[in-house]
Amino acid sequence: MGKPLVAYFSASGTTERVAKELAQAVCDAILLGFPIRRYVAPTIFNSFLESYDFSGKKQSAASLKAWVETVL
């Protein structure tokens, strides 16, 4: 069973707390999380995505709201 890669951007710490909970609940996945402001991902998050090749990897990118709904 592999470990997940959980990458997140957290301005206030809320996304960080949710990311850590999800990291305990999933295996063999790449989870990418970010706070949502004005209904778009932060620029730093888009820059991160453009920097890496995730082809062939099981991944999920979601806003904090979607992550919270998953955890709860």
Brief account:
With 72 residues, the chain is an alpha/beta fold. The protein has one domain (5-71). Helix content is 40%, strand content 19%.
Describe the structure.
- By secondary structure, the protein is an alpha/beta fold.
- It has one domain (5-71).
- It contains three helices and three strands, in the order βαβαβα.
- It has helices at 14-25, 43-51, 64-71; strands at 5-8, 30-34, 59-63.
- It has a three-stranded parallel sheet with strand order 1-2-3.
- It is globular, with a radius of gyration of 12 Å.
- The protein starts with a strand and ends with a helix.
- The mean pLDDT is 76.
Number of H- or I-type helical stretches? 3
- The class by helix and strand makeup works out as alpha/beta
Strand order of the largest sheet: 1-2-3
Mean pLDDT score, rounded? 76
Task: Please state roughly what percent of the residues sit in beta strands, choosing from under 5%, 5-15%, 15-25%, 25-35%, 35-45% or over 45%.
Answer: 15-25%
Number of domains: 1
Radius of gyration from CA coordinates: 12 Å
Shape: globular
CA(first)-CA(last) distance: 24 Å
Question: What composes the largest sheet?
Answer: 3 strands, parallel
Low-confidence stretches: none
Helix content: 40-55%
Overall number of strands: 3
Series of secondary-structure elements, N-terminal to C-terminal: EHEHEH
Question: Characteristics of this structure?
Answer:
72 residues, alpha/beta, 3-stranded parallel β-sheet
